Amino acid sequence: MKKILAIAAAALLVVGCGSKTKTYVVEGNIEGAFGKVALIDMSGRTTYAETKCENGLFSLEVESESPLMAVLKIRGQQLVPLFLDASPLQIEGDLATPDKIAVVGSASNDAFRKFNRQQMEILAPVMTPESTPEQQQAAIEALKGVMDASYQENKDNLWGAYLLTAALYPQLSAQEILDAIDLLPREIHKEPSVAQLKESAKAQLKSEVGNKYMDITLPDAEGKEVALSEVVKKNKLVLLDFWASWCGPCMMEVPHLMKAYGDYHEKGFEIYGVSLDSDKDAWLAAVTGNNFMWVNVSSVSGFDVKAAEMYGVSAIPANFLIDCSTGKIIAKNLRGEALGEELAKFFAE
Q1: In which domain, by residue range, is 272 found?
Q2: How many folded domains does the chain comprise?
Q3: How far apart are CA 321 and CA 269, in angstroms?
Q4: At which of 184, 206, 228 does a domain end?
Q5: Element (H, E) at 10
Q6: Is the same domain home to 230 and 133?
Q7: 2 and 140 share one domain
Q8: Which of 13, 108, 27, 92 has the alpha carbon at shortest distance from 61?
Q9: Region of residue 20 (phi > 0: left; psi between -120 and 50: alpha; otherwise: beta)
C-alpha cells in the first residue's frame, strides 16, 4: 500500500540568447475559495504570483522566459499542479473536492488530467483494507505502465518533463536523462526542475565508475576541515558515503556499513561519511548513537552543499567506492550485502 501511495504522490506532484519573456495568465473560478491564492514552484520555495480570491474568482499573471511547472495554493493549502505552457489557462472546480479541480488550456494540462483519471481508476479498487498484496502489486505494475505510456505520448511537452523530473529519472542513467531532456523543446530546458535535473545528470557523468574521484573538504564534528584526498592517501579503498539521520533507507544501511568497516578497516578500508543533515544535533546523535568509527563530516546544510552537487547526488543513500591506488571510482551505490561482496573481491586479489 505504501508503494502505491508513493507512486500516486509522485505522479500528482510529474532558451537561449535573445529569448523573450512571456506572460502566462491563469483565470480561476473555484467555488468556496477565498483569501490568498498563489502559484508556487514544485519545491514550494518560490512564489511565482499571488493575489486575493473573491467569491471564488481570481486572476494570476506570471512572466517567464520558459514554461513553468507550478502548484496552485489557496490559503496555505497546495491543491493542484498545473503547467504554464499556454495562456490563458482556466481553473475550475470546488474547494470541497480538490481532487476534481481541473486545469484546461494546454496539451500538458490535458495530458495530466487524462493521466489522473487513469490513475484513480487503477488505485480506487485497492485503496481499501480488504485489498490483497497481490492486488496492490498488480495495481503498482498497472500504474507504472500507464505512467510510461503517458510519458511516451508527451516527451515533447511540459507534462512529459514533469514525469521525467518527478518520477522517472531514478530509473535512468545520467546519459539517458540528458538524452531525454534533449528531446524536450529548448525553451523547456530552462524550467527550474528540468535545469536542476540536467545539471545533476551532468555531475553524475563526472562521477561514473571509471572516472577519477573529485576532492571535497568538509568540517568534522569539531569543525576541523577534512579533505577526502587526505583520507584517500592513507588507505587502499575509501567509500564516499552520502547519508542523513532523517533518511530511513540510509539508516537501514548502517548494519552493512558497520560490518564492512569491522571486517576490512584494518586491511585498508575507510569510510568518508558526508551527512546531508541540516540539524547538527541530529547528525551527531546519529553518529554517536550508532558508534560510527569512520570519518564523519558535514556542512549541516542539507543538500545545499557543493559536495552533493559535484557528485550529482539528488537522493540518498548514495555512495562511491574509490580505489586509492588509482584514484578512480570502481563502484557506486553499493547497497546491502553488495558492499561487503565488493570489498571481499578487492582484498582477495
Answers
A1: 217-348
A2: 2
A3: 10
A4: 206
A5: helix 2-12
A6: no
A7: yes
A8: 27
A9: beta
Amino acid at 73: K
Distance in angstroms between the alpha carbons of the first and the last residue of the chain: 45
Banded model confidence at residue 315, pLDDT cuts 50, 70, 90: confident
Confidence at 179, pLDDT banded by 50, 70, 90: very high
Q: How confident is the model at residue 78 (pLDDT cuts 50, 70, 90)?
A: confident
Residue 211 lies in a domain: no
d(CA 80, CA 89): 13
Cell of 196: 536542476
Q: What is the grid cell recorded at 223?
A: 569543525
Q: Which three cell numbers stand for residue 133?
A: 498484496
- Size of the chain, expressed as the number of residues it contains: 349
Instruction: Compute the distance between CA of residue 128 and CA of residue 133 in angstroms, rounded to an integer.
Output: 11
HSE-CB of 72 using CA atoms within 13 angstroms: 31
pTM (whole model) above 0.85: no
Is residue 273 a part of any domain in this protein?
yes
- Among the candidates 206, 227, 252, a domain finishes at 206
In the predicted structure, residue 100 carries a pLDDT above the cut 80: yes
Contact (CB, 8 A) for 64 and 22: yes
Mean pLDDT, rounded, of the chain: 91
Beta bridge partners of 71: 40, 81
Integer Cα distance of 330 and 2 in angstroms? 34
pLDDT tens digit string along 210-259?
999 999 999 999 999 999 999 999 999 999 999 999 999 999 999 999 99
Q: What mean pLDDT is predicted for residues 32-42?
A: 91
Instruction: List, in sequence order, every beta strand (DSSP E) within the chain.
Output: 22-31, 35-40, 47-53, 57-64, 68-74, 77-84, 89-94, 102-104, 217-219, 225-227, 237-243, 269-275, 295-297, 318-323, 328-332
Burial of 245 (0-12, 13-18, 19+ CB in 10 A): buried
Q: Are 154 and 108 in contact (CB under 8 A)?
A: yes
